[in-house]
Design brief:
This protein is of the alpha/beta class and 232 residues long. It has 5 helices and 15 strands.
Amino acid sequence: MLRLPQLMDTILADLDAVVQRDPAANSRLEAAILYPGVHAVWTHRVSHALWQRGVRLPARALSQASRMVTNIEIHPGATLGPRLFIDHGAGVVVGETAVVGCDVTLYHGVTLGGTNLDPVKRHPTLGDRVMVGAGAKLLGPIEIGDDSKIGANAVLVRSVEPGSVVVGVPGQVISGSPSDGASRDADDPVAFAVRSLLKRVARLEELGDEGDQPAPISHDADGVWQLDDYAI
């Protein structure tokens, strides 16, 4: 359990995070009284301490009470770093094994969810200074590198390197790279099709007025379209 000086430092740091990252917040007092994200985080710090000490039922009861008041659901088993800012907060869900780093910002409608029912690590891990836009869904035991930004309404199911910018459904890295080093299009037929179209357009522009005809659209025996074709 935090000692009183540590507790006060944590409280003030949480309030400062709101004032620094929300231009609508005018003071620590306003943030402390009127921001449901602050109330949810503070309640979670208590319920998490109970959870760690094996007092599971009261911990869950406290988290559910907070959910009814703030419309933010944070499982008491989740680990939240200092200075987490949940802006607006409506509809935010954080799963049991989620880990959130320092100075993270979550907007309304964000889900840090799981993809299986096994009692293992099944929720995302967010690094420091990560920003997750409104409505984004991060699913499974993936890792989001420090300083990454996840766009509004993105659905991300794979890990990304620090400094990545992710948009779309499924989430595509438009700056940075997937942490496994695989091609960004490996499991995404939509992105594959778009990139193939762009390559074909570039080829047509190169032909210009030469009168040459581009290769016919074709695919191999397995039904896989060639990289220089439309892929749709």
